[in-house]
Amino acid sequence: MFFEGQRSGKLPPTQRLTWRRDSALKDGSDIGMDLVGGYYDAGDNVKFHLPMAWTTTMIGWSVLEFGNKMGYPDLRHSLDALRWGTDYFLKATSVPDRIVAQVADPVLDHDCWERPEDMDTPRNSYLLNASHPGSEVAGEIAAALAVGALAFRKISPSYTKLLLNRAIQVFEFGDKHRGSYAQSVGAGACPFYCSSNGYMDELAWGAAWLFKATGDNKYAYYVKSNLELTNYVQLDYAYAANADNLVCAIMPESPFKTYTFTPGGLLYAEGASSNMQNPTALCFLLAAYTRVLRAQNRVVQCGDVNIAPSRLDRFVEGQVDYILDIRKHPERIGCSEGYGFFRNVTSNPNVLIGAVVGGPDVNDRFQDSRLVVSQSEPTTYINAPFVGVLAFVKGRANV
Q1: Kind of pairing, strands 260-261 and 267-268?
Q2: Helices (H), 71-134
Q3: Please, are residues 136 and 71 in contact by the beta-carbon 8 Å criterion?
Q4: For residue 273, how far is the Cα from the chain centroid?
Q5: pLDDT value of position 331
Q6: From CA 388, how far away is CA 381, in angstroms rounded?
Q7: Using CA atoms, how far apart are residues 171 and 96, in angstroms rounded to an integer?
Q8: Are 27 and 353 in contact (CB under 8 A)?
Q9: Which of 331, 212, 207, 315 has its CA nearest to residue 254?
Q10: Measured between alpha carbons, how far is 84 from 88 in angstroms, rounded to an integer?
Q11: Residue pair 337/350 in contact by the 8 Å Cβ criterion
Q12: Checking DSSP bridges between strand 99-103 and strand 125-128, what pairing results, if any?
């Protein structure tokens, strides 16, 4: 339901959060494209395509990995949330050799705190092309479209074909015209969503999902040749070793632990704009990896400490318990209606059901104030992996 509250564009009759209405119905008109739809990424009204594409991919991966744990109504809603993203990215990539990287000026948008239904700030579109590349955005969008193709394969073969063909096209564009969108978009990208470690990880991410969706070994070779895995002879071993190393870096009892925890036991993201994006994403990876470990009938060896899949199960459940208790009423996050409510602590006329906020500081302190954006603001990229995590925990509860 949270993602329905983040929807932009013309809303369908099935919309459950009825306080959210149609908005941004002229997006793309400045460049002659239809860019109506997509998601607002957080509490602002900007459509940042880099985090939106990652969000879409993670919703899709949640469906692929844990959809059988969701139950029919929630699986259907998850597929709706996925398609809201993939439909939009088909629009944003509809012109060959052009990709729209973003809609709206983030500086001007952030200066005017208002509902998207009422906004009057500029809705300019930021374009990528051969002379203004954005490989990280292309890689993320390619991944989102490829995951969508996998998720809808048995539901709509024609839609799957459309998504897959577009994913290949977008990936090839991003790989052929390499460069960072931070330079092409400039102040529209940074300091908001810079790609701090370059664009090759996003291109490899896109290639990995294209390999999964097509079975074409050229994408596996692309990943292998573009990642620093030269210490290993076989790629499968490399992935297993890196995944095991991540487990050892996270788990509190591991002698190789490098991650930080709050006194209450929550994973803490050093230097992140909001903390909760770290535990939701890492818990998703751990939950997914338990399936691999069980299939291989093995544990993770961290020095003289063995980490069994059952231990990872309990760790993920513990993180979820912390997250759901953070506000004592986790399913109800107030989303106020106008600028006058920004400093008003008593009036929350609209409820953004399902929103996971930025979370506490390193000492478990949480300030329930709009002025403390890093703690009180929910985002799509915090929530997206949590869809899969909650499905995993739900499935565990039914065992």
Answers
A1: antiparallel
A2: 72-92, 106-110
A3: no
A4: 15
A5: 37
A6: 12
A7: 12
A8: no
A9: 315
A10: 6
A11: yes
A12: antiparallel
Give the separation between CA 173 and CA 250, rounded to whole angstroms.
36
pLDDT in tens, 242-252: 899 999 999 99
Q: Calculate mean pLDDT across residues 111-122.
A: 91
**By the 8 A CB rule, do 61 and 97 touch?**
no
pTM: 0.93
Rounded CA gap, 261 and 255, in Å? 15
Q: Nearest-CA neighbor of 123 among 285, 201, 8, 207?
A: 8
- Cβ of 363: how many Cβ atoms within 10 Å? 10
SS3 352: strand
Please tell me whether residue 102 adopts helix, strand or coil conformation: strand
Count of other CB atoms within 10 angstroms of residue 290: 20
Q: What is the C-alpha separation between 395 and 85, in angstroms, rounded?
A: 26
Query: Which amino acid, one-letter code, is at 391?
Result: A
Is residue 94 pLDDT above 50, yes or no? yes
Task: Supply 173's token pair.
Answer: 């564009």
pLDDT digits (tens, 9 = 90+) for 214-262: 999 999 999 988 876 565 445 566 788 889 999 999 999 999 999 999 9
β-pair partners for 48: 102
What letters, b where the CB count within 10 A reaches 16 and e where it falls short, cover 202-232? bbbbbbbbbbbbeeeeebbebbbeebebeee
What mean pLDDT is predicted for residues 18-34?
97
- Which residue type occupies 288? A
Half-sphere exposure in the Cβ direction for 232 (13 Å, CA): 14
